[in-house]
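> run fold Beta-ketoacyl-[acyl-carrier-protein] synthase III
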Amino acid sequence: MRIKIIGTGSAVPENIVTNQMLSEIMDTSDEWITTRTGIRQRRIAVTETTSGLASQAARKALEDSGCSPEEIDLIIVATFSPDRCMPNTACTVQAALGCKNAVAFDLNAACSGFLFALNTAQAYMAAGIYRTALLVGAEEISKTVDWKDRSTCVLFGDGAGAAVVQAREGTPMAFVQYSDGTKGEVLTCSEKALKNPWAEPAEDPRMLCMDGQEVFKFAVRKVPECIHEVARQAGISVSQIDWFLLHQANSRIIDSVAKHLGVSRERFPMNLDRYGNTSAASIPLLLDEVRREGRIREGDLVVLSGFGAGLTWGAALLEW
Ligand code: COA
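> ok
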């Protein structure tokens, strides 16, 4: 059993925040952000919610797939920035869309979240448990960053992307996924401090913190490795892969991966200039864009690769 993407959708907040706008409220510049990251603007939520964006993207993906809400038997929302700890975001999406036959749960693997959701759906389908899944990556990172920390807040944006995937006869796609908790401290985002009548009163811990250079080195080493690995699993060479849809964190990371793999940069679509790093939403947001532009054709080989906090990373190879 293999999986096929049969519908995609996305949703972003209305509010556009340019680099110039950031330079008016903190010590940064369009030049610094553009040359170091490739990001020119991002969407920052004002009234939107994580679950609202997730539901909007999911609804569009469902419409695009032509499936009825009842046909969906699994919903996974990848997010590290839900509106509420419970109910989970996936149950909120289920209720909004009327997918009454679906089991719904969230998954947190930070920026690798959508990829891990895809691989989870693939495993359920290979086992014959579910047939049609709605996968969503949705984030409001703007509520997790410290807006006084210019080294992180300029990098991120809010948004959601979704895909409907269905089981098909055929050999399974190739995928790899990895985690290394021992390196977790290079990218963290704390929740609230322990507060109860027995614990010492503590201040709420810092929000998103990152060692940018360590994350950079990790990404440029691990992404090419795992793309080579899925190609090997599938018995093809990297040069036969038509499209490389990478987590949209930094254009210099994408340049470096293309160079390591010896593949033309044109086969790496990019939209981080407009959305910044949207964590779990970035791959499905890009997927929806390239699909609607008609750039990917039936039979194309597409690799998706994500990396992020945990540390977590991985890749999946699909035939379109
Ligand atoms: N505007 C202007 N200057 C800034 C700035 C900003 N927004 N943020 C940091 N700086 C300054 C620093 O204070 C530092 O100044 P100093 O030299 O006077 O100390 C200087 O710029 C260089 O900082 P540094 O951290 O060395 O820059 P860098 O070249 O490593 O680029 C990142 C920083 C974050 C862009 C880069 O490390 C990166 O992209 N890492 C990967 C991050 C990522 O992808 N994370 C998500 C993974 S899912």
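Residues 28, 32-33, 36-37, 111, 150-151, 154, 210, 212-213, 215-216, 249-250, 277, 308 surround coenzyme A (CB under 6 Å).
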